[in-house]
Amino acid sequence: MQHRYNSFGVLASALIGARAEAVHYPIPTTLPSAAASLDTTPVGLSFEFDVWPRYKLNLSHVWQCMNHVAELYGAKMPIRIGGTSQDRSAYDAAYDGDIYVDPTDDLHRVYGPKHFDLISDYGGETILGFNRGDNDFTNSLEAALAAKSRALDYLWAIELGNEPDIYYSVWGKPVATPPWNKSQEGENQAQWSQAFLDAWGESSSILSAGNYAVPIELMEAYPNTDYLINTAFNDSVKAGVKAYCTHSYALSGEDAELPDEMKHSKTVADLSNFVEKIATAKSVGRPYIIGEAGFHGLETKQDATFGGAVQIVDKTLHAVSMGRLSTEATSLLLRSPARERIVASDSGNDTYAQYVVYKRNLPYKVVLINTDYFSGNGERTATVFRLTGLPPLTLKALRMTAVSSEVTVEDSLPSIGGQTFSDDECTILGDRVFEDVGNLNGTAEVTLMASEAVIVYIDYDCA
């Protein structure tokens, strides 16, 4: 990989510093006690159950993009195969294809054993979802045992139902009876889980439990993972649970606009709803996963924008700093201790994020994110991040940027360190460009335009 260097960060400060807002979040020079361990594969990808085969067989550029991440991890990206369509899918051992979607019935799919062969073909850790909503335990168990026989080495966890908290209110699924509150859903999930574990026959933990749509109460006695842990699950089921999971879409109306949705303060507020849930799961020795993440389940346009990318970077890092990771429209989890730790060192009250990564108890990377919105028209605002408490080392930086918050890859490619990705095969184009960052007596200033992120390498040998 060729590297080039410039002093854009320093020049930008000099040229527009008079107009730029400034923020100052001191960098803790020693490892804070609140710092969370970084999982070695912190971000994965979730595939909707019924389109998983199409991605695997027909969209080669997706796998090339994932390979770039795998090179950073030293292992394949973890994946999840699930979503709304897992609760619309019936298993047929005699079906010779991977999955069939009836064009006349959007609520029904049929899939066969080849659906699982694609997991082994991928060869990475997988969370696999099955249908609980249609209340056919025999069929779902048959499917799970078929997956076990064909892809056991890659099954990290099994998910019994997707977003069961809205089985009644949104989908009217057969398993749900009104009002479908936490005691009803919890009892049903516990029964399915115990029966599944009895039939699975392995002593290791295998279930991803909960898998709820939202982390807040939409009605009295709303289903939640705390209730599963504290009340619904017996010791046998809790021993069979590998992780607890809830999804994290924006907790706002469907008409919410990108300028508000991508704000760092909004991301922090949304993720604050997981604090108690993470602590409860930790009390029984289990990690917490965000199984799906994005703006809204129906707001694909916002998710496709560069502002959406900036927000998902912020959400991922903030989630990891709370003590877990990510996999679907990204998704999030913390499994095993690693050498690196991370802390959020900003206030969480504005649009500017700062995350400090530590190795050997010393800071060696700082991630700066400016979540201000830029439409692409008019003047683009800038913010100077003032870093203090730095060791006397040479600093280098990589910048993630695009022409606006609203742009999508169809319009203009974003860049990371001056490099872009081709649309056809996700090939990396161009040389990596590191920026010089001046370090004067432990103080540095880095200018970020609206909707940009920068990684500052304190220990440049780690870049």
Polypeptide structure, described:
The chain has helices at residues 8-16, 52-58, 60-73, 114-122, 137-151, 182-200, 225-232, 235-240, 258-261, 264-271, 275-283, 300-303, 306-322, and strands at residues 3-6, 21-24, 36-37, 43-48, 79-82, 89-91, 99-101, 109-111, 126-130, 155-160, 207-212, 241-248, 288-293, 325-326, 331-332, 340-344, 352-359, 362-370, 382-387, 395-401, 415-416, 420-421, 428-429, 432-437, 444-449, 452-457. The longest helix is centred in the middle third of the chain and has 19 residues, at 182-200. The protein has 13 helices and 26 strands. The chain folds into two domains: 3-33 and 343-462, Sandwich (Immunoglobulin-like), CATH 2.60.40.1180; 39-337, TIM Barrel (Alpha-Beta Barrel). Residues 1-5, 7-18 and 329-337 have low confidence and may be disordered. The protein has 463 residues and is an alpha/beta fold. Helix content is 28%, strand content 27%. InterPro entries: GH, GH79_Enzymes, GlcAase_C. This is Beta-glucuronidase C-terminal domain-containing protein. Residues 354-455 form the Beta-glucuronidase C-terminal domain.
SSE layout and pairings?
Layout: E1 3-6, H1 8-16, E2 21-24, E3 36-37, E4 43-48, H2 52-58, H3 60-73, E5 79-82, E6 89-91, E7 99-101, E8 109-111, H4 114-122, E9 126-130, H5 137-151, E10 155-160, H6 182-200, E11 207-212, H7 225-232, H8 235-240, E12 241-248, H9 258-261, H10 264-271, H11 275-283, E13 288-293, H12 300-303, H13 306-322, E14 325-326, E15 331-332, E16 340-344, E17 352-359, E18 362-370, E19 382-387, E20 395-401, E21 415-416, E22 420-421, E23 428-429, E24 432-437, E25 444-449, E26 452-457
Parallel strand pairs: 1-24, 2-19, 4-5, 5-9, 6-8, 9-10, 10-11, 11-12, 12-13
Antiparallel strand pairs: 3-16, 4-15, 7-8, 16-17, 17-18, 18-26, 19-25, 20-21, 20-24, 20-26, 22-23
Helix pairs in contact: 4-5, 5-6, 6-7, 7-11, 10-13
